[in-house]
């Protein structure tokens, strides 16, 4: 047996470092809750009541900014399209369903089981929890559960309690279009062909005309794939609290840290006197709690200092935006910010996460101000959109064809990059863009 010593590098991350990173990443509400929890555990820690809370409704100014389309996800939805319904309602899905249970003839046990199913519905209105799990939790029979689930699916909104998209659509079709067999067949068995826009194949499989398939698809698209989305969500927050505010003066900008929402931390005077006068285990315990409180105060101060420095850098780098608004962002990466602030890039990433900045043009995520390769990318993306808008919809351009056309304009772009930019702009592929003329 031979023993060898091999040198190796190893990085040890202390609990304090982890805690500091977590505090940096927290948003204002999260940090406030975190401090309140610590105050319950640390007798030396007292939190003063913060001033009256400031709430700011999000102005979706960045929604129409093509320079940062990633924030387009929810904001460009057509409010009339049921496939994209959002919510700002106050009544919850649970409230509505519980009220409807009063109209059913249920035993106490049956109502308990149905309430359990309702409470386990997703915000979309789907029941993703398996019936076996529900049976175990409620000590009920699977056949009984199926009966009660069927009863739940009779409630409003139509499609509630479905376990899949096909089932959700079929429930609605049975109620609203009970005679439409083509639509029911498509919804129950062939949604993947609809998603791929393969209408001729679908017509062949169902042995009906293309016109009949297109009519049935219009019916299906009139349904709501997420019936629960038309109700409020208890977790839904209609406002945000910006961490930073940019104030414009005649000759300069001032960046303000919105830390007034955090409860000020102070020491409990009674326990501090006890720390001075006590000894033994009591002294050791209070000393440890004081060290914890000192460290937390340092972490919060460091977090605020990092955010303020980052905000000042953003104003400096993106001055054109703060002067002229959307469409005037400059290329700026988190790596550049980390280098300028002399901190690690991961620290910038944590500082940016879930943080917002308020300025003249609205409230924006901090990540909105970090974009790379902007000028060339936007030129290519804009040209792709123009080519697609002008194409023959009966014979739409493939990604390779788009790449070839761009190359003729001296824009050397690969097919893969065309696909990436097209997806970023939420433009379907050529198969899904094709129109059928009857």
Task: Briefly say what this structure is.
With 438 residues, the protein is of the alpha+beta class. Helices cover 50% and strands 6% of the residues. It is built from 20 helices and 8 strands.
Word description of this protein:
Helices cover about 50% and strands about 5% of the residues. By secondary structure, it is an alpha+beta fold. α1 crosses α13, α7 (about 165-175) runs antiparallel to α8 (about 180-190) and α12 crosses α13. The strands form three sheets. Strands 5-4-7-8 form a four-stranded mixed β-sheet, covered by helices on one side. Mean pLDDT is about 80; it is low at about 50-65 and about 70-90. β4 and β5 (about 255) form a beta hairpin. It is built from 20 helices and eight strands. The termini are far apart.
Sheet with most strands: 4 strands, mixed
Q: Taking Cα atoms only, what radius of gyration do you get, to the nearest Å?
A: 29 Å
Uncertain segments are 52-64, 69-89
Q: What amount of the residues lies in strands?
A: 5-15%
Distance between the termini: 83 Å
Q: What's the oligomerization state? A: single chain
- General form: flat
How is the largest sheet built, in terms of strand order?
Answer: 5-4-7-8
SSE string, helix = H, strand = E? Answer: HHEEHHHHHHHHHEEEEHHHHHEEHHHH
Structural class call reads: alpha+beta
Helix content: 40-55%
Number of strand segments = 8
Indicate the mean pLDDT: 81
Number of helices: 20
Write the layout of secondary structure elements.
Blueprint: H1 15-25, H2 28-41, E1 45-47, E2 56-57, H3 93-101, H4 108-119, H5 131-138, H6 142-152, H7 165-176, H8 181-189, H9 191-195, H10 199-206, H11 210-221, E3 239-240, E4 244-248, E5 253-257, E6 265-267, H12 269-277, H13 280-317, H14 319-324, H15 334-341, H16 345-352, E7 356-359, E8 362-365, H17 374-390, H18 399-408, H19 415-424, H20 430-433
Parallel strand pairs: 4-7
Antiparallel strand pairs: 1-6, 2-3, 4-5, 7-8
């Amino acid at each position: 047996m031979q023993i060898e010593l091999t040198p190796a590098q190893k990085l040890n991350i202390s609990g304090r470092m982890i805690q500091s990173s977590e505090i940096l990443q927290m948003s204002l509400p999260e940090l406030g809750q975190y401090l309140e929890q610590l105050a319950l555990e640390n007798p030396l820690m007292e939190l003063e009541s913060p001033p009256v809370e400031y709430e700011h409704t999000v102005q979706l100014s960045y929604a129409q900014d093509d320079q940062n389309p990633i924030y387009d996800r929810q904001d460009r939805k057509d409010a009339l399209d049921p496939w994209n319904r959002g919510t700002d309602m106050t009544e919850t899905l649970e409230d509505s369903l519980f009220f409807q249970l009063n109209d059913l003839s249920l035993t106490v046990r049956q109502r308990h089981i149905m309430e359990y199913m309702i409470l386990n519905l997703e915000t979309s209105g789907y029941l993703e929890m398996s019936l076996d799990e529900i049976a175990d939790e409620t000590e009920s029979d699977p056949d009984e559960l199926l009966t009660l689930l069927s009863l739940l699916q009779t409630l409003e909104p139509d499609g509630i309690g479905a376990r899949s998209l096909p089932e959700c659509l079929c429930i609605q079709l049975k109620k609203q279009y009970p005679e439409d067999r083509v639509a029911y067949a498509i919804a129950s068995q062939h949604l993947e062909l609809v998603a791929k826009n393969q209408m001729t194949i679908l017509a062949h499989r169902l042995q009906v005309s293309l016109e009949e398939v297109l009519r049935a698809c219009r019916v299906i698209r009139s349904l709501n794939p997420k019936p629960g989305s038309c109700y409020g969500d208890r977790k839904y927050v209609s406002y945000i609290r910006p961490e930073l505010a940019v104030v414009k003066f005649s000759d300069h900008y001032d960046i303000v840290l919105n830390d007034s929402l955090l409860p000020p931390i102070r020491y409990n005077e009674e326990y501090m006197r006890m720390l001075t006068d006590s000894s033994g285990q009591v002294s050791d315990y209070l000393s440890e709690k004081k060290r914890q409180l000192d460290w937390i105060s340092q972490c919060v101060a460091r977090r605020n200092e990092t955010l303020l420095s980052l905000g000042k850098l953003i104003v400096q780098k993106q001055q054109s935006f703060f002067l002229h608004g959307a469409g005037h962002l400059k290329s700026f990466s988190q790596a550049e910010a980390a280098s300028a602030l002399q901190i690690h890039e991961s620290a910038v990433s944590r500082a940016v996460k879930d943080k917002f900045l308020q300025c003249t043009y609205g409230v924006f995520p901090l990540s909105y101000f970090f974009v790379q390769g902007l000028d060339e990318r936007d030129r290519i993306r804009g040209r792709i959109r123009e080519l697609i808008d002008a194409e023959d919809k009966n014979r739409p351009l493939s990604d390779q064809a788009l790449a070839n056309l761009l190359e003729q304009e001296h824009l050397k772009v690969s097919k893969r990059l065309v696909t990436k930019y097209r997806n970023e702009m939420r433009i379907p592929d050529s198969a899904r863009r094709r129109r059928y003329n009857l």
